[in-house]
Amino acid sequence: MKLKIFNTLGRELQAFEPREPGKVGFYGCGPTVYNYAHIGNLRAYVHHDILVRTLRLLGLDVAHVMNITDVGHLSGDNDEGDDKMVRTAEERGKSVLEIAEFYTKAFFNDTERMNILKPTVICRATDHVADMIDLIKKIEAGGYTYMAGGNLYFDIAKFPPYGDLARLKLDDQKAGARTGVDANKRNPQDFVLWFTKSKFENQALVWDSPWGRGYPGWHIECSAMSIKYLGDQFDIHAGGIDHIPIHHTNEIAQSEAATGKHPWVKYWLHNEFLVLDRGKMSKSSGTFLTLQSLVDKGFDPLDYRYFLLGGHYRSQLQFSFEALEGARNARRAIRDRLKVLADKAGTIPATAPLPAVGDSAVGKIAEALAAFKSALEDDLSTPRALAELWGLLRDNALPPAEVLAAVFDMDRVLGLSLEASLREAKPEESGDLVREIEGLIAERAAAKKAKDFAKADAIRNGLKERGIILEDGPGSTLWRRS
Ligand code: AMP
Ligand code: ZN
């Protein structure tokens, strides 16, 4: 096991050692289902997907848990603002559960279109309120809470490690405490575990509890559900970087206060944001791009997946339609190249037997596969993994059937449906056309060698008119559709 991942706890690359050999417990914060996921949210879920697929490639048995937030999330993560679900329900004249059901379906429709594997456990907050109440009781029994203004708060002063994950300087924050903070809070970072005093007249979903009829704060659901499905301590927890200072910080405080066990989670992974040229994308601002809006412009959801894989998850990624077009062209070029390889091989290998290191050509493929795996083991470097894929595709000297097998093997992590794209290649990409293009490329290479540049150019231009672009690389020429 050589996997290294960047742990936000400690802010360093660390060797991944599962708590139990061969098994991984992973919790990724799921969506708040009051609206469509925007393409920034989908970046977080593609990141989780690459993590899960890489762990499985490395032979680990992964339990992946994802929550669906359908109660308790206010527009500010720190208990400020409106209830996101209630506000949308009121605007649309629907019930909160109807809104939740609609957007949950929409969410999984998006993730499926992006080849994001379904988590092992998907858990809705409203189905787990009893678990949340049980956990809050434990926190209360430990002396970590106080009642004020009808709500039950977590008292961060009772939990000295509070803020370690985010390296918060609490004294500074207290001195500069913002106005508008709930006056019931002893510390600005204290947070609600259970609301009984709803700020909203028609709070749709309420439950009985030892603290009165009400509803849970947002953070408690992730602690309660992850502990329920993964145990008091588990391996990996992930979410976007926005979750470091409040949501994940509060999750740690609640969980460790309830169980008395430290550390609750061994590795914390956070993805950087996807940004638009206009700046940050957020659901609550109402100006965001959905996956469907990309599809409506003629893109395939997997074009967007490819675009995301081109950036490392810990770097901010700027979205633009030009960049998305680049991703689409790259995917088409891959498919065209696969078609050439399949044609040369005479067959599409059904499964992906790993080539053995032995004769030099096959050895090169094995090396590329090893480099691909190392890229992923190096904090999930998808850009380098893609470069390894391209290295294989560009090398004309390699045996085509083995290259195809290796590429399909890589796709177990990349999730670009490469085998399916080849099988579904349209009639105009039939073997005859591919053979013709390959023949012309060979003729052009021969013409160039004989210094007959006029002929070489004529072949290139002729193909260009037919929408085929040639790209000369070191030692070989690849083609793609314009
Ligand atoms: P939410 O549904 O708002 O709770 O967010 C779902 C996930 O998306 C969380 O892990 C967020 O941290 C993450 N996220 C939100 N905005 C972005 C963005 N612009 N880029 C990447 N991840 C994001
Ligand atoms: Zn969470």
Identify the notable features of this structure and list them briefly:
alpha/beta, 482 residues, 16 strands, 4-stranded antiparallel β-sheet, single chain, 16 helices, binds zinc ion, binds adenosine monophosphate, 5-stranded parallel β-sheet
Q: How would you describe the overall organization of this protein?
A:
The structure is a single chain. With 482 residues, the chain is of the alpha/beta class. Helix content is 45%, strand content 15%. It has helices at residues 39-57, 84-92, 96-113, 129-141, 170-175, 219-230, 244-259, 291-296, 301-309, 321-345, 360-377, 382-394, 400-414, 418-423, 431-449, 453-465, and strands at residues 4-7, 12-15, 23-28, 61-68, 121-124, 145-148, 151-154, 191-195, 215-216, 234-240, 265-271, 274-276, 279-280, 317-318, 468-473, 476-481. A five-stranded parallel beta sheet has the order 5-4-3-10-11, sandwiched between helices. It has a four-stranded antiparallel beta sheet with strand order 6-7-8-9. The protein has a three-stranded mixed beta sheet with strand order 13-12-14, with helices on one face. The two termini are 42 Å apart. The mean pLDDT is 89. It binds adenosine monophosphate and zinc ion.
Mean pLDDT over all positions: 89
Termini separation: 42 Å
Structural class, from secondary structure content? Answer: alpha/beta
Walk across the major sheet and give the strand order. 5-4-3-10-11
Write down how many β-strands occur, each being a DSSP E stretch of 2 or more residues: 16
